Amino acid sequence: MRAAVWHGARDVRVLDVEVPAPGPGEVTIAVAYCGICGSDLHEYADGPHAIPVGTPHPESGVAAPLILGHEFCGVVTAVGRAVPGLSPGDRVAVEPHYRCGMCPRCAAGEYNLCRHFGFAGLMGHGGLAEWATLPAYMLHKLPETVPLEQAAVFEPAAVALHALRRAGIRQGETVTVLGLGPIGLLIVLLAARYGVARRIVAADVRPSRLRLARKLGATEIVDVREAGAAALRVAAGATGEGADVTFEVVGKEETLRTCLAATRRGGRVIFVGLAETVTLDAFALVNNEQSIITTVGYRDCYPELIRLVAEEGVDLAAVVTATIPLADVVERGFEALLDGGGDEIKILVRPGSGRGAPR
After folding, report:
1. Helix 207-216 with 182-194: angle, nearest 10 deg
2. pLDDT at residue 341 is higher than 70
3. Could you tell me the pTM of the whole model?
4. Which helix (H) or strand (E) is 293 found in, with range?
5. Which residue, 172, 168, 160, is CA-closest to 213?
């Protein structure tokens, strides 16, 4: 099969590799679509960050070189022993969290905090390939009313939904989302869909993303090239007090500081973006009694996303701007997204036909 294999920074190769047969508790799927994530871009640009090099990941048993891609879906082609409920031909979404099932956090149901935390496609072989063999616990069977194009966006949508749950938005509160990449836009979409927030302020530097945020349900949009934290505070409420809840979805110290300045005293900042080190004014943080709430991955989100698409017709794929073949994943995928000059938001890769058996 053909697969996009990470060998090092700026060294992703589309190669012919073997398809592992499913062992006990495993399933092989023909990949229909796989999204390119910001985490993939970091690994491509200057990794490794999460990719294990030298020592294999304890759950996947894999070290680089490995197949990238953790936002994917497909059709079951083969089922290993001891896998109830799945058969060849089933359409599935992949929830790519590895979990040991035995550590204290797994026992508490918080499997996204497993001591062996990881993702297929970052810490093990993923979905930028024609086929993928995975633990069966990662797969969610899809009803016929859920198109695979929608299921391809479940992974970033799950990040957005988990962040919203962590925020605990109460009826009538105001929300600001700073950073309108796929996850920020999906936070806007889901926050608007649930209808709890009184006002949703979407902020970014790109007009095309601001326009899309408005279509997805933002009540206010702010171009942060022209306006800073003060404008965000005013946009969140007529009193200028600031938002009750602000989502940082960029991953920079500067934007985290902006979020704190745009949030009311006693408010919450949800830190979704990935940043290595930040320095904050702890005196102001304490005096304003603000909370910084972090969020990683997701848990128990896929069933709700399936319901939203199947029963309420939610269009998660509204953030998808291009679909490309696997052969073009470097030039039209990674490089196009890193370039930053275009209007691409979420690019899906279509490795194959989405059905059939490995060849």
Report:
1. 20
2. no
3. 0.95
4. strand 291-294
5. 160
